[in-house]
Amino acid sequence: MAFQTNVLRGGEWVTETVDLQAVLKANSNTQAHKRQRLLKPPQCGLLTRTVFESQLVNSILPVRLRSLHHNDVAFVSDRAVKICEFQEDGQLRDIARKNDFGSRIKNACVLGSVKIDGHSNGPFPQFTVKPEDGDDLPMSELSTLNSSNRMSSLPPQLLILVLDCGDCVFLYLRTASDGTPEFVTSAFPSPREQLVYPGFHMAVDPSSRYMALACAKDLFVVYELESLEKLNMDFMNGNSLDPVRSYRPRTVQGVIQNMTFLHPRPGDDHHIILLLVIVRNGKSRMVTYEWELENNLSIVFSREKPRHRMPVEHQMPVLVIPLTVQSAFIAISQDQMALCTEGLHGPPHFEILEGPAYPTTEDYQGRNQPLWTAWARPFRLSPEFEKNDYIYLTREDGVVWYIQITLDSGAIDGPRLTRLQDVGIGNIANAFTCLYVREGDILIIGGNSGPGSIWKHVARVREEKLGELPAWSPTVDFMSTDEFSTWNQPAVENKPTMVPWQDSQLRKPDRLFATSRRGNKGSITEYRYGLKADITLDILCGDDMKEAWFFPVSHPNYSDGFHLLLSKPGHSTVFHISEDPPDVIEMDPSTVLYDLSSSTLAAVYYEHLFVQITKQNVVLLAHNNSTRSSYEELWQGQPHGSVSDACIIGEFIAISTHTGTQFQINTFSIDTNQLSLVPGQSISVDGEITCLTLGDENNVYAALWRNGRPFLIKVSPSGDRTTIDLSMYLPGNAANTGHEGGSPIEPISSIVYTKSVILLGTRSGEVITLMNDTSKDDGLSVECEKFGWTTVNITRTLGPDSPTPEFLVSCDRNLVLLKSDPSGKVKARLRVLPVDANDTGSLSPPVDYAAAVNVLSSNRDGSTILLISQSRLLLAELHEKPGPVHRHIPVEGTPTKLVYSHTLQCLIVAVKKNNQPALIFLDPDTGEDIGRPTDKAGNSVDNISGLGGAGKTDDGIYGLAEWEYKKDGNVWRFILVSTKAGRLIVVSTAKVGPQEDGSMTIRYWTRFKKELDRPVYSVLGYEDGVIYCVGQTIHWDAIDATEKKLKHIKAHELGSPATSLRIVNGKLLALTSRDSLEVIDHSEGDTTGIVHVDPKRRNAIHLMEVAGGQLDEPMGSIILVADRDCGVGGLWVPWQIPKKDCEQVFEADLPSSIRRFRRGRTRPIWEQGRHVPKYGRLVNTIDDAEILGISLDGSMQHFTLLNIEIWRFLRFVQNMASTSTELYPFTYRRIANLEEFDPEPRMDKGLEMHVDGDMLQRCFEKRALERLISLPGHFAQFMKLLDELEDGKHTSNLARHGYYQLAYDIIEYFLQPVL
Questions:
Q1: The RSE1/DDB1/CPSF1 first beta-propeller domain covers which part of the protein (predicted)?
Q2: Is 697 exposed, middle or buried, given 0-12, 13-18 or 19+ CB atoms closer than 10 A?
Q3: Which of 55, 699, 760, 826 keeps 20 to 30 A from 1127, CA to CA?
Q4: pTM as predicted
Q5: What is the pLDDT of residue 3?
Q6: Are 213 and 270 in contact (CB under 8 A)?
């Protein structure tokens, strides 16, 4: 059907005949286009948790928190306190850590003084723990714990912390019922609510009866404290600990520069003197408050005290050190050091102290003259402090002075200043202290540009370095080795998608590297987590070692030490190792009683017996007697075939032999009286015996390989057999690791038995766990985990009767410790990292075999393990608790930027050396700089064009990126560098080599260079162009092939510099320093325009795009934006609606600002198939990579997206936890009637969408849910929220206890280690 109508053609109306069906069809298509589905912002929450805490230490304090005889030291950081004990070997042992304060720690000091062997660190009234017999005892003898877990007496000192929330926290350590140290705290809240609480300055008077806290200006508060004797009496009577007796605030006019208590004169211990240095109108004045003990503080501070102006040359002192003589003090300003006396009776007298000038050290990183930063008073015989004082003083460039002050004829003699020649570690901040040992002084120094250190100083003896401490320094960049850079990046052609729970191809975990330290101590830090194993002995023993045994000497020619027995192909070797001094000697085979003529299969040492089984003989040693029995003698000439394996338990032996393909199990018992073997039984089995072990009641467990399948056979002493076909428990005869598919399992290589569990290791990298399970029809539970691709060796660290067995698993030359619960179920898998304290820049040595040995360890919380590492034999002390085991690769400059190049297989590092920028190409394994700068002709130069050179000092690299340049189907790869001085440099690279030694070098040179008039803050390579921000302008350039230079295309003005640039969905994301996120459309020719912005103006630092819950929808992603105010926002960009602002999905408030986001598939191999998305966890990327963020203080956060159901449950737990004094002891919400409290989460798209994973960690460790959620109404909400997870599939037929256990399982799932 057709009709005529008027239509507009060429600007004129004309009459045309139109087909009706065509009109209807066109209209239908238009309506369909109009009805295109508009995406809505995703609804999700964010879980964050701390992966690595900061190494930043604000103060180091010697404090006897347990007893007089425990030489403890407190390391106080922003949010945690760690107590360590100084040991006789000169090392620090971790004792306890507390990080649940919920508020930043502003300041810390020690309450109480001690006298040790007549020594003290001042003429203080001494308080010591004195039981009835009058002797001081260590805490282990004092802590007679009753049902309430109380000690018999307080320790001699308390640690006082001042929190940002205004609370003063008094704490000490006691021994818990399980024998571990635990903190006991008592909090005193701030006297009044105010915007800023006192604590910027903190001081305790010498009598420990008064404490003063001050704000930075205008206000200080003095607290009167109970005497320590009174507190101890109250404690022993069972009363609560209330240290604060009264307090008095006092206002002043001006900035409080310093505050300290001065020492009274000898015999006048009741005299209290408080000194303040107040700055007003640029002038420094002193004011002192004096009173007697027990005086009314209201009267003392009721009137204004006279102020004395300080001399011009001593204005604004950075340190005020009170001396023990004449109530004097030393005032240290930037340029002068002066002794101040007579300050209590009129205008003070200042005497300039002239010390030997010492130039600034080369490690100093500041611009101006270095300042004096910290001081400490050593322990001396108490009477000496009446006429003498001793001070250690540190300068921030690493200089340490020792000052001695003497009182002669009533006047202070000129102080003697001595510099410690060898103590210098670079920049020193406030973290510095001195410990007491009988032989001298122990100095503990915390560095802020390099590692801290421990030194021993003895008079007239050269200083001795005892060890290093983890250091804090600004972390400005970090990188993972993940080859993907976006959340939905397609996989490389001909490579799998790497989705862990779908792909059977496991992969090595990505590695994490960060910039750290500064100056000559600058380094790249590889972040690692696990159990540290300190290498104590390293022996080069040759190749082909199979197993090793370490046991005390049982040889008459050697009176002490140990023997090390090694099994090698065709023979064995034994070494003698003396204890003190350590010495290693290979023993002559003719002088030993061991069989060294063949490979050793098993060896064991008991107190009265040593047994060695080789492929030719069995050796027994006992009571200076020995026997060696050949297998011909044992079988009395009967055919026995070849010996393949053996094991020993107690006085029982099992040996496997084979003749051709026929295998036998042979048992023997040991007659210790006759020192001989008594034959047991010989049992033929169907299949190849690949390994065997002995269990309880002398049962033999042997692994068989028959018809391409693994079996486990149990043989009792009576000959009864039980055979388990393991393939029946492994679907498809493949590793049940959570993958769709798997590689066929190869024969069993090792087997370990305990009463609760049997572990089997395979030649293809699996660990199979067998446990009794009454819920199964056959009463057996079998699990299989993939640990790698090579042969698995398993050994046991504890005896077979241990209630919680532990195992050492070596595979792929990595070492893992498995920890089990009493049921035998493996609960923890911890990577073990051997570390050489003298070489922290090297990779951990590869581990081929590991076993625990019975050697006394200096680390009382750990054990000693024996490691075979290729041709080396190592002894290492294994730590008990996991933690950071970082590796530091020196770069001899200050690193500022970092990129990992998959093309070059190296780290590209921007460093600053000698105040000039440079590039380093770092081999991540060897730590060597493999880069060679050249000019375009290939001639070697010191720096490539544009970096370094004359006239380019004080420059720095602001931007560093790789650029994959695509043009006409071709691909070139460049490195982009932008600098502070306004240079944009395109760098070409080429691999050169290998060299004669097999090493590879990388030649690099400047391809293009552009000079600009302002700093180039960021740079991005995109297809055939370069995008970069100069000042506040974004530029687009392209390579002009004809002129061979960068040609300008267009520009876009911003309101502030763009520090980060990304291309997402064809649009440019520019993160600006003041205006947060701006989305720029740059697709239309020479024009650009802003299409979306962040409605919240943030001082942004970095951004990252993550999935928004819809993996098939690129426009549903979320942009994570980190700001300088410790916030992280999740923004959704309405791509389909131009000119519409971004919408906030969630917001989080973190302990510190995130400096960089990175993605990485960092989970170890055994976790890659286990961590399947469940309970409502949303994947961050299409391949489920982890999202990590690094902060300036070196701490690292992990980010997890949550769907609404699991967010609602976890946020409910957090809301309930906020009312708990157990989980938030100092910042909990005070609820008058908890029954009326409604913890239901609110979807506010703000901070309520954030879940604190660190709180969940405390809740899980304390098993606090039953106490937290006990009221009927709250428990009903608790059950309802769990019922809603995944359509209730987890809660069918659950009792009350089942709901709690499910909640713990969920929390544990979200807290699994990501490294």
A1: 57-454
A2: exposed
A3: 55
A4: 0.90
A5: 57
A6: no
